[in-house]
Amino acid sequence: MDTRYPQQRISVFDIFKVGVGPSSSHTMGPWRAAERFVRTLVMDRVIESVRRIGVDLYGSLAKTGIGHGTDVAVLLGLSGEDPETVPRCVIDEIRRSVRGVEHLALAGGVHVGFEYTRDIRFHRDQALGYHPNGMTLTASVSNGRSIQETYYSIGGGFVVQEDEGPRPEAQVTLPYPIDTAADILRWIRSQDQPQPISSLVLENERVWDPQDRIEQRLQHIFTVMRDCVFNGLNTERTLPGGLGVARRARRLACSLLPQPWPDNAEEFFAAVAHSAGKPAAAGAAGFEQVLRWVSAFALAVNEENADFGRVVTAPTNGAAGVVPAVLLYYRYFVAGASDSGVARFLLTAGEIGSVFKKGATISAAQGGCQAEIGVSSAMAAAGLTEVLGGSPEQVLMAAEISMEHHLGLTCDPVGGLVQVPCIERNTMGAVKAITAASLALASDPEGARVSLDDVIEAMWSTALDMNSKYKETSEGGLAARIPINVIEC
Ligand code: SF4
Asked: Where exactly are the structural domains of the chain?
């Protein structure tokens, strides 16, 4: 099976999507698959006659589905809730009661039979051939007919069916079609005037949206990321799932910024920048302070993610803290940072995520954690290098350096929860990204022996060689050493 995405056109907004934790492939993907199934029932004009719904989860979705909230996500998707807007209290309520569910309001209105203990089945010993994250949804209709669809959650919240062609949005003609890092350089070098990578990406995005709409959407992504950090820094409790992991971001931030804190994000981050001694001229604030803040930002996002909070996939939920941590580092600790810089950061980072998706994978079930934290770190390194004035070659070099030092990273979440090692691992990805940007900015890419495309190929071949127990099954590594009883709620 090869679910890479060559020649498919992917928008930056396919990589950065607002959603709900804890997992893009095990929560967001199944949620979107359930929504798609409901749309199929509507289009087939059978939704009013559905009597019962069945859900079969296979492979990695079955093995770590409960810890990742796959069951909750499917029920919310079938109920017509949108992960971008669903209130947190609705998620919390269904999490509390999921095992007692006895019926569903399909698409929010059609009442159908659904008994949790009978109608959602975790096939832990079976995997479907196309991708490890397979799921089948079945609707029993009043005339005795059944409608059945199988979906695959292939990472980053993307959902496909085995025999479907490219999405209509992926079939557009872009001015600068990009599949590889070499394509980026070729387009850059073909311009009369040198331009940064973000300008190229913006031109492509204009095929989908007018520029003002793109700018609004980028600002929205930034705001959701920043609010996620703010919420995470203002919450202190033990994470759900039975592992007993205490949230730490708030305590770390409290050691850096005396209370009381401003109660809105804008003023809070202004105070954070001030506390770290943001310099008036070019340069960065004190190293130790910044290191702790960047770690606090990353922890905050992934604690929110583990707590079913609202996050932005970047490119996945498990790795959702790396890009915001580095982006906030840029916005609040680097002199001369601006809103337009934030947009350029996100455009560049998003394109790097796409190149990894097309040439390798952003699914831990296919490639281990190198596909999540490794890719997010490469994205952040590229975005930061772009806004710190790096050349396109240095931007790509930063992404290459960052991934080079994540190659082979396995995925072994303890208890199937996106907590250990996931939350801390985001801090490592963020710090490596900043280091990679710094190294690239101080280097001459002409002398580099390894290109970004080389490292993407190496990542893909490593993914193919990796033992399957290290691909989001919780059967190897740390997960095998620290067995826990996951609380199934
Ligand atoms: S170990 Fe890495 S890839 Fe696996 S769930 Fe955690 S963050 Fe995601």
From this structure: 23-155, 170-481
